[in-house]
Specification:
With about 230 residues, the protein is of the alpha/beta class. It is built from 7 helices and 9 strands. The strands form 3 sheets. The chain has a 5-stranded parallel β-sheet. Strand 1, helix 1 (about 20-30) and strand 2 (about 30-35) form a beta-alpha-beta unit. The structure holds S-adenosyl-L-homocysteine. This is tRNA (guanine-N(1)-)-methyltransferase.
Length: about 230
């Protein structure tokens, strides 16, 4: 899969997209991520300005349409419907959306800043808008990283044991079961004895029950209606 990210702060992506699971996925070629600096597409060569004051007045600055149009034109291979704007006004991102997005060959993520981007970009260029939740952060970079991470870990060959992704919270309309590791007793706190029983059927049943119990308690809204 190819992902292009348009941003005013390319340096923010170094780190989160370079290490651990995402870094290895990039090294292995499971995902090809390219970061583009919108300032490289400014028509103002001296100050590389990409924003201006809002028409009609009001606070803050708005990203102009031109650098975004030019940046997108510079990306060679486009597939239909791949341009996504990060926006608190978009469709709320979740695991199901991540699973839908991995079916695409190519995604272009636009990160807004300041008061946002010129509305004409949203109306005429953008195919869809994604929000990471009902709160406002300062720019689309952290939201884009969340989307890229959630998608990349679902791509084939990225997470070593694929069952580990399949049993993750939200994957089957359930939260994940509780996990423990050594030592079996820490500061007097014991792990559930079933986990030491060596009886895989019992362990499996316990895990299913615990996952269901906590899903009912914490997130009854995610339980699939058609679940048997
Ligand atoms: N005035 C805008 C918010 C601007 S915040 C509004 O109220 O709708 C600046 C940029 O941060 C946005 O353009 C968007 O790209 C990004 N952003 C902020 N919150 C976000 C969220 N919850 N999900 C995705 N992107 C977000």
């Amino acid at each position: 899969m190819r992902i292009d990210i348009l941003t005013l702060f390319p340096e923010m992506f170094a780190g989160p997209l370079d290490c651990s699971i995402i870094g290895k996925a990039r090294e292995k070629g499971c995902v090809n991520i390219n970061i583009h600096n919108l300032r490289d597409f400014s028509s103002d060569e001296r100050h590389r300005k990409v924003d201006d004051r809002p028409y009609g007045g009001g606070p803050g600055m708005v990203i102009k349409p031109e650098p975004i149009y030019k940046a997108i034109a510079s990306i060679d291979s486009h597939s239909e419907g791949c341009i996504i704007l990060m926006s608190p006004q978009g469709e709320r991102f979740n695991q199901e959306k991540a699973r839908k997005l991995i079916k695409r060959k190519h995604l272009i993520l636009i990160c807004g800043r300041y008061e946002g981007i010129d509305e004409r970009v949203r109306e005429n260029l953008v195919d869809e808008e994604i929000s990471v939740g009902d709160y406002v952060v300062s720019g689309g970079e952290l939201p884009a990283m969340i989307v890229v991470d959630a998608i990349t870990r679902l791509l084939p060959g990225v997470v070593g044991r694929e069952e580990s992704v399949k049993k993750d919270s939200f994957s089957e309309g359930m939260l994940d079961y509780p996990t423990y590791t050594r030592p079996a007793i820490y500061r007097g706190m014991e792990i559930p004895s079933v986990l030491l029983s060596g009886n895989h059927l019992r362990i499996e049943k316990w895990r299913r029950e615990e996952a269901l119990r906590r899903t009912i308690l914490r997130r009854p809204d995610i339980i699939k209606k058609d679940r048997k």
